[in-house]
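Cross-check.
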Amino acid sequence: MSQLKRARYTLEFKLEAVRLVKAGQSLAAVSAILGVSSQTISNWVQADRKGTLVGPGTKPVTEEQMELARLRAENARLKMERDILKKAAAYFAKEST
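Predicted model, tokenized:
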């Protein structure tokens, strides 16, 4: 029987996920960006609020991975802003006719 291994994340990685949530990103968006379940991120946010968020784990996160996560978050934010602007433009175009 194969046994699943639990992923371990560094404290820096967890703090970045918490920072994204605190910055206004939804749990689902951060989960998709970082490839971590939304329940895990929720647990990290709760632990951060209590001051019990700890690390490091056995899964090191390189600077490139951190940069990739930051760029994915920025990309998601920009797509959301673009979609809002598209809807606003369509609304005002419809209103002016």
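Helices lie at 11-22, 27-34, 38-50, 63-96. The first helix runs from residue 11 to 22. Passed to J.P. for a second look.
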